[in-house]
Amino acid sequence: MTESRSTLPSPFLKRPAPRLLAGQRVLVTGASSGIGKAVAMAMASAGADVCVNYPVEAELDRAMEEVEEIRAHGGNAWAHQCDVSREAEVVAMFDRIRKEMGSVDILVANAGIQRDAPFESMTLDQWNHVLAVNLTGQFLCARESVREFRRRGMTEASRALGKIICMSSVHEVIPWAGHVNYAASKGGVMLMMKSLAQEVAPLRIRVNSIAPGAIRTPINREAWDTPEAYQSLMRLIPAKRIGETEDVARTAVWLASDEADYITGTTIFVDGGMTLYPGFEAGG
Ligand code: NAD
């Protein structure tokens, strides 16, 4: 994963949006760049208070810029440093959420990393790190969310006791040579999400995933930032354009809202058709 800042604008705060999430509070993990940043902006624009999670001190400035941008547009946001793979830090983040916002209504478990290597040379550290952030991190944040939803009880703001959105990937179903750790983590997210959704549906907690295809963010810069790379990427995308973070963010707002109240245990693919076996476009 490169550390460079996403070059994309944050259009959500600049245009009026339906306030589908008015009165609700959201935690977005890994929110200081890429998809997480766009989701945080979109949720704020839809009326939610936002906790912008970032993992390390070096990302504080980026997180604070985002918080200031939301506040400048009349929203309510604050930043919290936490490595989602560390249980004590996640528990402490939820303590702070209770102090700052009273509770949380929506979790977007977005934080994720890649540590790519051919299988034979993949180190245990590369394997463990990706699983720790992408899968265990989502488990820890989802568990604390369910505990908090139950402690808080129903409110007027939503028909659900709480909503969890897991940021998965098309690689929850598409195998990915050279990225075995990443694909395993997202495959794990898929069945964690579905099993959890089944378990907590009677409590009126909805759990779903969004599976992005190729979205223009720092995590996959080498796949889109030269014309040659972009052309090659287009062979995998029937819609013939790369996804933008706003494509994912709009989906997240809708999925978190009562508009999607009967949807749980589902993965929504935001991928321009990448999961449609694009190799068969010309008839196979
Ligand atoms: P990104 O690199 O811009 O964002 C990842 C974020 O996670 C960063 O803000 C980073 O600081 C944060 N993070 C990393 N480790 C963390 C930790 N231990 N604790 C808390 N935060 C941590 O990349 P992105 O593309 O915006 O990725 C966001 C999510 O979307 C990831 O889960 C990724 O797997 C998923 N995704 C992205 C794409 C894509 O094409 N960009 C496709 C499919 C899935």
DSSP summary: helix tally: 7
Tell me which CATH architecture applies here: 3-Layer(aba) Sandwich
What structural class is derived from the secondary structure elements? alpha/beta
The CATH first-level class comes to Alpha Beta
Task: Give the bound compounds.
Answer: nicotinamide-adenine-dinucleotide
The biggest sheet amounts to: 7 strands, parallel
H/E order of the elements? Answer: EHEHEHEHEHEHHE
- Major sheet strand order: 3-2-1-4-5-6-7
User: By CATH's scheme, which homologous superfamily applies?
Assistant: NAD(P)-binding Rossmann-like Domain
The tally of structural domains comes to 1
Unreliable stretches, pLDDT < 50, 5 or more residues? 1-8
Question: Span from first to last CA?
Answer: 34 Å
Global shape: globular
Care to count the β-strands? Answer: 7
What is the percent of helical residues?
Answer: 25-40%
> What do we call the CATH topology?
Rossmann fold
Our estimate of the beta-strand percent is 5-15%
Q: What value does the average pLDDT take?
A: 95
Radius of gyration: 18 Å
Write up this protein.
- A seven-stranded parallel sheet has the order 3-2-1-4-5-6-7, with helices on both faces.
- It has helices spanning 34-45, 60-72, 87-101, 124-152, 180-200, 227-234, 245-256; strands at residues 25-28, 49-54, 77-81, 106-109, 162-167, 205-212, 267-270.
- The longest helix is centred in the middle third of the chain and has 29 residues, at 124-152.
- Helix 1 (34-45) packs across helix 7, helix 3 packs parallel to helix 4 and helix 4 runs parallel beside helix 5 (180-200).
- The protein is globular and about 50 Å long.
- Helices cover 39% and strands 13% of the residues.
- The chain starts with 24 loop residues before the first strand and ends in a 14-residue tail after the last strand.
- It has seven helices and seven strands.
- It has 284 residues and is α/β, with parallel strands linked by helices.
- It has a single domain, classed as NAD(P)-binding Rossmann-like Domain (Rossmann fold, 3-Layer(aba) Sandwich).
- Bound molecules: nicotinamide-adenine-dinucleotide.
- Residues 1, 29-30, 32-36, 53-55, 59, 83-85, 110-113, 133, 137, 167, 169, 212, 214-215, 217-220 line the site of nicotinamide-adenine-dinucleotide.
